[in-house]
Amino acid sequence: MLRFITILLASTAIAAPAIAQDTVNVPADETVDTTEIVVFGQGETRQVQEVGSKELLILAPGTSPLKAIEKLPSVNFQSADPFGTYEWSSRVSIRGFNQNQLGYTLDGIPLGDSSYGNNNGLHIGRAIISENIGVTRVSQGAGSIGTQATNNLGGTLEFFSMNPNSGTGADANLTYGSENTMRGFARLNWGEAGGIRGFVSGVYHAADKWKGGGEQRNWQINAKALIPVGDAEFDAYFSYSDRAEQDYQDLSLEMIRRLGYDHDNFFPDYATAINAARNIFVAPINNRDDSYYDASGLRKDTLAGYGLTAPLGEGATFKIKAYYHDNTGQGTWGTPYVASPNGVPMSVRTTEYDIQRGGVFGSLNAEIGDHEITVGGWYEHNDFTQARRFYAFDSLTTPNRDLTKFQRGPFFTQWLFDFNTDTLQYYVQDKMTFGDLTINVGWKGFQVNNEADPRVQGALAAGKIKSKDWFQPHAGLAYKISDKAELFGGFTQVTRAFVSSATSGPFSTTQAGFNALLARGLKPEESDTYELGARYNDPVFNGVIGVYYVNFRNRLLGVPTGPGIVGNPAILQNVGGVRSIGFEAAGDLRLGNGLTLFASYSYTDASYRDDVVTPTAIIPIKGKTVVDTPKHLLRGEIAYDSDTFFGRVGANYMSKRFFTYTNDQSVPSRVLVDATLGYRFDAGLRSPIELQLNATNLLDKKYVSTIGSNGFGNSGDNQTLLAGAPQQFFATVKVGF
């Protein structure tokens, strides 16, 4: 902790004037044209889109910002709950790259790799309340080289908090809906443009699970302030989040056929769970893995960042930001495979997390003739403690353990590790403008040092490993054909650093396995992305088309040594490459009088280029489609918005997805329909009162949402699927005064 405080104080002392992120965080209404549904990156030399706050506000309040971007080309988002916030099921992939291979930032602050295992960051839903997001920027390729990320092989998601409004006022909304959903949000704004201004906001959200017993709830506080200091401006951001989610049961195709989509864990039926742990089942349940007593994900996060921005003479700007993140978490599971010492045939198994990370990043930008040159850097130190522990149930008849609370008093610690990760990254970029032609060239480089220090080693690995690549080039161009049309194209090479964790990455194996991978020279994953496309924009139509080719090399795969749920370690190894080619198109049509149409389509052909060779077998996957990568994604919307009435209906089609590497098992295609209907009326307040109705899965489709919740197998059915939420309705009242 002292080290992080020193970093933060020193960073401010170094740079009187500075900022927050590589791209200036300005209010949404100055970044995104609110008459457009999506801004398609005019002038950018790569495929990139921006979505404004309007997209989130028309969805059911509390909806994840990841769900708001699923309409964009090549973005595949899945979750088992209607809001897209349930983290065990939340998955986003772009062009065949999974969520751990994408980069995430909030106001430039790195959010890590979005893994459920929570080793180097936090999900965006815990970093900011959805109503406080101003702009979301999605790069389908490898993303901006200035992003604070060492894992953005296949894309970058940059979130920007809204800036405080001018004037003093308050905004509030209250939502009630299906499954006893109750959500309240309030935000207080103060200050004037050009002066000190800020906001403080809070939210509470609770809902019963849509099947089985239990609930999912969270409460959160956000605060932001902007303070002018001469020509410079100071910014500060703070977030605290407390989330508790009881889990849904993972399913297989066979379980869905035998037990149905609505099958879930036993909770709160403790007696039946005890019997099942003794292999006494009630039909149609016939084994211990059909249902567990209960499971949950618990997370508490504190995130803070502050920075300054200032001009350094004419045409030059210096920016810097320091940040700190503290996380405490537990993933719990009522396991029937380890008995409590007192004879109860179950115990509570936890995976426990404790993150303390801090860092600083900044950039210097200067315009020199036809050149706009930017040089930037980022440093982070991450202390991460992870443990696997077991806690006893006290009685055969009454559960003494509430899995929505942090567990205390373990009877056994299987392993306990302290991980230290140091990240150093820099980048250089030159944007050259010659009339209608813009050329963008540059590169980034990094070194990431990983160390695992065991306190209780168990069967896992300890040691040191590092990844470095000091030259990852980027080149692109954009050419204006006319005032309305432009061409763009580019190339980006990116390397993904190793992670420090006992449940993923090079340390999630045996000591012998770790020593072997060091001896044979484990290589970090790399990708080369080539893009070519065209954009068009006028007052009626705004759109983009593009094609891409990706060469993904040194793919890392944890080759399992047994069932993952009972803790068997995997052996990490390089298993070859992936080739992806695809086509993307999107556009919105403004028909006038508040009526708009939007559509997007993407085709992805992502396939493995090599068979996987293990010590005992050769897995024939060469030429097979990458798991969880639908070939076709099609989205369409019709929306209307006047001074009084507003509404939208959207349809989302996804083709079938494979969940085995040999492609012998898949889930079918599906179409989901969501709808919004609203009414505004003037009550003499600062803004009109809004009544909003939202329907998710309007046609009540039964379908598999998330695949790969317990990883992907080589072949055969696997308990790694989650059912999607059924039809849900929510009503919201919004006021501003």
Model description:
The protein is mainly beta. The protein is 7% helix and 51% strand. It has a 22-stranded antiparallel β-barrel. The chain has a 5-stranded mixed β-sheet with strand order 1-6-7-4-5. The longest helix is centred in the first third of the chain and has 13 residues, at 2-14.
- Mean pLDDT across all amino acids: 91
- How would you sum up the major sheet? 22 strands, antiparallel, barrel
Q: What is the overall number of helices? A: 8
Query: What is the tally of beta strands?
Result: 37
**Uncertain residue segments:** 1-34
Helicity level: under 10%
Instruction: Give the end-to-end Cα distance, rounded to a whole number of Å.
Output: 41 Å
Radius of gyration: 25 Å
Shape by Cα distribution: globular
Question: In percent, how much strand structure appears in the residues?
Answer: over 45%
SS-based class? mainly beta
